User: Which sequence fits this backbone?
């Protein structure tokens, strides 16, 4: 089953084409890396996929809903975690989760048991009543990810989730991503760490608004005849005109 | 004379110990990297050295001047590029640069040679508002502004965070050039792969330096047997590696997992993994990277 399908999706701002006719398909449960240089159009493309921005032309569906016609349904059926930590610092751990559950329409009587189950899995039960602002960064980040998939969406969008995080926490975070993917949640992730690109099932690389490459890391490395994703990225992005 | 000299600097925010007594020296013309995650104390250290924050105790000198008694002298001759974009969003690229030049009583023309390489990449957009620039261009403008008065010491707090790999490489080429001009550079980064580009580095975590040395010496001091392991099922592989009690640590590293082992041969590990149903198994003895060292050091501290 396809969770994302786009056909020549395009976004222009005046005479500037930020996203230039991108077509792609992402499968259920897939970990999809969305790479590109700064200014390549990643954020604009993601905003369209999340129902936050209307395409200038082209079409697509996300989680089964039409990007042009039903952006509101898309918003309800996806999870999103931004680069910057997005929980409420002055609420307790469980209050944050209850809030997210409520916003996304998780049935009232399911919220409480789901919070306990989640916190037990994460080993956070002792911190249930802790204010979020008192948590170490790595924990906040895991909690933020858990909140973004609390309503069990078909797909979660992660915008540079691991920027600035220590090496051990960065790896634990990827294990959470794997778990989500094993449960059938599609993970759409942007990152500037090229070793993390290797953890994805497939990656796309955007250059000047276009998708210049889309394949598994293994195939991309063999196509470009290089040893690492860093070199693949460098070869493609070096020629970029936009910045 | 050391360009930066720091002796037992401590700083708390309420109960949080942001810096727990940090000491180091940086030579003139050296690129010294502070490598560590968010919340480790990097920015607090930068703010103390640029005289924007007072330490609770300890002493520090920058280019021979005391950070407390002679703060005015320091402010005249250092360049500081904070982690967050700190330019005037409503002024154009050119206006921003002019503001910084004027504050320091100089002109763009006078020190153009220092910023030329980097500024000419954004010069085509000099009439654009700084707020409308992309992330990579903002960084280039901020660096130009930090350099326009020809500082003796340059403080760059996470100049490459959120910047794509190509722009990151360009920035490091630029720093090497500035070093040749005799400028001392203190630079912080959460990207471990950038450590090897520094002359010396300090690995920082929880307000403490775990190690100060050249990247090469740090890597050579890694004393565990380190292997890279690969199979056709990488997520299952990690779980099976962790379940083996002769494997001390196992971490995902891009397309392989890195493990440290005790009393285990390559053949033994291979037959263990075959027994768990793995195929296309590859095991190689490898040299540690800075990231391996960081993981090892933070485990023991």
Assistant:
């Amino acid at each position: 089953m396809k969770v994302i399908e786009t056909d020549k999706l395009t976004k222009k701002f005046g005479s500037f084409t930020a996203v230039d006719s991108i077509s792609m398909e992402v499968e259920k449960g897939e970990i999809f890396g969305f790479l590109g240089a700064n200014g390549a159009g990643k954020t604009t493309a993601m905003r369209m996929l999340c129902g936050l921005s209307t395409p200038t032309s082209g079409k697509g569906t996300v989680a089964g809903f039409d990007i042009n016609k039903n952006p509101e349904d898309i918003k309800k059926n996806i999870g999103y975690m931004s680069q910057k930590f997005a929980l409420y610092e002055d609420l307790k751990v469980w209050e944050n989760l209850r809030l997210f559950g409520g916003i996304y329409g998780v049935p009232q009587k399911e919220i409480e048991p789901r919070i306990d189950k989640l916190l037990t899995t994460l080993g956070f039960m002792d911190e249930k009543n802790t204010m979020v602002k008192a948590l170490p960064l790595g924990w906040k980040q895991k909690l933020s990810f858990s909140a973004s998939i609390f309503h069990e969406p078909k797909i979660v969008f992660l915008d540079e989730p691991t920027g600035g995080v220590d090496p051990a926490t960065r790896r634990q975070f990827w294990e959470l991503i794997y778990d989500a993917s094993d449960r059938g949640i599609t993970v759409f992730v942007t990152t500037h760490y090229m070793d993390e690109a290797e953890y994805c099932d497939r990656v796309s690389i955007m250059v000047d608004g276009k998708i210049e490459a889309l394949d598994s890391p293994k195939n991309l490395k063999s196509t470009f005849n290089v040893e690492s994703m860093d070199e693949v990225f460098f070869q493609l992005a070096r020629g970029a005109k936009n910045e | 004379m050391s360009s930066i000299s720091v002796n037992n600097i401590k700083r708390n925010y309420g109960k949080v110990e942001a810096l727990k007594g940090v000491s180091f020296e940086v030579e003139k013309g050296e690129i010294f990297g502070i490598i560590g995650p968010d919340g480790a104390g990097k920015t607090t250290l930068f703010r103390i050295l640029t005289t924007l924050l007072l330490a609770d105790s300890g002493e520090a000198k920058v280019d021979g001047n005391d950070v407390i008694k002679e703060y005015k002298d320091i402010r005249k001759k250092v360049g500081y590029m904070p982690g967050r974009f700190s330019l005037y969003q409503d002024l154009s690229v050119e206006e921003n640069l002019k503001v910084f030049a004027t504050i320091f009583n100089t002109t763009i023309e006078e020190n153009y040679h220092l910023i030329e390489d980097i500024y000419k990449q954004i010069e085509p957009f000099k009439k654009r508002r700084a707020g409308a620039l992309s992330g990579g261009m903002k960084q280039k403008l901020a660096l130009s502004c930090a350099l326009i008065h020809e500082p003796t010491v340059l403080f760059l707090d996470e100049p490459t965070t959120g910047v794509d790999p190509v722009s990151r490489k360009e920035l490091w080429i630029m720093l090497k050039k500035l070093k040749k001009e005799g400028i001392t550079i203190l630079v912080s980064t959460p990207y471990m792969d950038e450590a090897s580009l520094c002359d010396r580095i300090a690995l920082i975590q929880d307000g403490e330096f775990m190690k100060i040395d050249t990247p090469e010496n740090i890597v050579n001091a890694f004393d565990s047997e380190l292997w890279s392991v690969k199979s056709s099922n990488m997520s299952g592989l990690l779980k099976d590696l962790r379940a083996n009690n002769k494997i001390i640590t196992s971490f995902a590293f891009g397309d392989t997992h890195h493990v440290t082992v005790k009393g285990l041969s390559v053949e033994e590990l291979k037959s263990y993994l075959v027994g768990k149903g793995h195929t296309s198994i590859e095991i190689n003895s490898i040299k540690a990277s800075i990231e391996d060292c960081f993981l090892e050091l933070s485990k023991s501290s």
Observations:
- Chain B has a mean pLDDT of 92.
- The interface with chain A takes residues 36-40, 121, 134-137, 158, 161-169, 190-192, 205, 235, 238, 251-255, 291, 294-295, 298-299 of chain B (CB under 8 Å).
